Amino acid sequence: MTTWSSSQTVKTWLNQLENHSDLKQELQGLIDRNDESALNDRFYKNLSFGTGGLRGKISVGTNRMNIYTVRKASQGLANWLKSQDLPQKIAIAYDSRIKSDVFAREAALVFAANGIEAWIYPTLMPTPSLSFAVRALECGAGICITASHNPAEYNGYKVYGPDGCQITTEIAGAILNHIEVLDIFDDIKQASDQATQRIHTIPKSITDAYLDHVYQERLEKTAPYPDLNIVYSPLNGAGKTCVLSILDRAGYKNIHMVDEQADPDGHFPTCPYPNPEMKEAMTLSLTLAKDKAADLVLATDPDSDRVGVGVRDKQGDYQLLTGNQVGVLLLNYICRRRNELKTMPEAPIAVKTIVTSRMAEAIASAHDVRVINVLTGFKFIGEKIGILEKINQAKRYIFGFEESCGYLSGSYVRDKDAINAVLLITDMAAYYKAQGNNLLEVLENLYETYGYYLASLDSYTFEGQEGAKHMADLMQNFRDKRPEKIASVAVKESKDYLMDQLGSDPNSHENTTEKALAYIPKADVLCWTLEDDSTITLRPSGTEPKLKVYISVRGKNKADAQSKLQAFRSYFSKLSDF
């Protein structure tokens, strides 16, 4: 029987790795140990390419992030771009992760070899700056080398279209078709000395313009409380320079950095899972905050498109706010301040994902703001901004957010932006501080006004080939046998986003703006609305081997909401039995 250690695929890779001793040594070691399980996991499939591009562990093999899979993806992207009537230019950014700079350079070389101009940032930069550069440089596409908040052993390859949004499902499929026909070694063009002349450095003026646009989105003319005491951590990622620059420009000087996490380090030694949604990643920030009696704690993830927030209460303790809580606070602040300043546009629009708190809709309704719901992924928020921009109504968009700590208040980029969010959150905290309130008190007032909303996200991991099949089977079972009750509460409405069409495709010739704004593309997502108006959403992650369960409830008070939430979470806990 043929084993992976004796397969032709593994032999081919071993023969091609002469100049890359780390990968060759790893592969030879697996063969010598006859580690069939590890070899199978690295080679049983190609690393998945979708709307999030690539994401995987840094290692040898077709199912891993390495220079070969990066080159193959880049060749496929180049072939797709050359088949389109788009500018033959690609912008490139990267973060602090292991080999991010190497992968960025390898991608640039492939693009250059294919006659495509490659514009690359000279140093690590936040992901939203890539979205900005794509449009500012009038590129046909863009890539950012990052794995966002994944553990240190991961890296990724995000792909952006000419609109500055991450690519759609249709474009991802078209690019994948170009990738799949390539031999990972023989079909990749290599850049000559002449071709490298097509590689250019993105000038400082682009970075300056990006930060100017961030600053222009603030609602305060000056810092409402300039002595606001702030602790900030970039979590060893790409946010430090831009965050400190924008806060300084806004008039905030009382900032304490978490020294252990201040400088770029892809090993993330003090926070192995650098996700600002998780308390473990915020531990050092909270410790420093307590020592400095800080008013506000901020932490940006490695590619600086998301931000975590902590707030000091009246007793001097600190509470971390969820993405939903920060989102509704910001939405309320933006609506309030725009009405106070008389800058609210006509027919204003806010956009959120279907798994984000419905409290946003209650707040928006009170301010006569329309809420549009989209699938999970900020690119879908960006697409709605693009639709408004095409009809010269981009100013109607006042805010967009998702429960995973992603926020954006302007149309200058098409992705969530932690630099923009940091400035908004700081101004918001300073605005309320000047009135003698903190964000926790403001949040409690919102609960008293609109009801006590709570939400949870539970992720169930299914590793490897067998796990992926089991996860697919679970989704199919829920799809085939739609539940009539969940935790004894009757299901009022079932929605299968793979089958139920909403709105019409923005590219349709028969389309109207309203239909385009309402459009939600097909996706492997199930959503149930219950009789008590709770909502539960199931979806497989697009970047990790996880099935995610999002639950949102509204209670008469905190205890009532917690009781409802726990009942629903217990119902789905059986998914962990695999």
Write a brief caption for the model:
39% of the residues lie in helices and 19% in strands. It is an alpha/beta fold and 578 residues long.
Q: Kindly report the name of the CATH homologous superfamily of the largest domain.
A: Alpha-D-Glucose-1,6-Bisphosphate, subunit A, domain 3
CATH topology-level fold name of the largest domain: Alpha-D-Glucose-1,6-Bisphosphate, Chain A, domain 3
Structural class: alpha/beta
Assign the CATH architecture of the largest domain. 3-Layer(aba) Sandwich
Task: Give the terminus-to-terminus CA distance.
Answer: 29 Å
Which whole number gives the mean pLDDT?
Answer: 93
Number of strands: 21
How would the global form be characterised?
globular
Rg over alpha carbons: 24 Å
* CATH level 1 name of the largest domain: Alpha Beta
Structurally, how many domains make up the residues?
4
Biggest pleated sheet: 6 strands, mixed
Q: List the strand order in the largest sheet.
A: 1-5-4-2-3-6
Helix content: 25-40%
Structure description:
- The structure is a single chain.
- By secondary structure, the chain is an alpha/beta fold.
- The chain folds into four domains: 1-42, no CATH class; 45-202, Alpha-D-Glucose-1,6-Bisphosphate, Chain A, domain 3 (3-Layer(aba) Sandwich); 211-450, 3-Layer(aba) Sandwich (Alpha-D-Glucose-1,6-Bisphosphate, Chain A, domain 3); 452-577, TATA-Binding Protein, CATH 3.30.310.
- The protein is built from 18 helices and 21 strands.
- The strands form four sheets. Strands 1-5-4-2-3-6 form a six-stranded mixed β-sheet, with helices on both faces. A six-stranded antiparallel β-sheet has the order 16-21-20-19-18-17. A five-stranded mixed β-sheet has the order 8-7-9-10-11, with helices on both faces.
- Helix 4 (67-82) crosses helix 7 (169-180) and helix 11 packs parallel to helix 12.
- It is globular.
- The two termini are 29 Å apart.
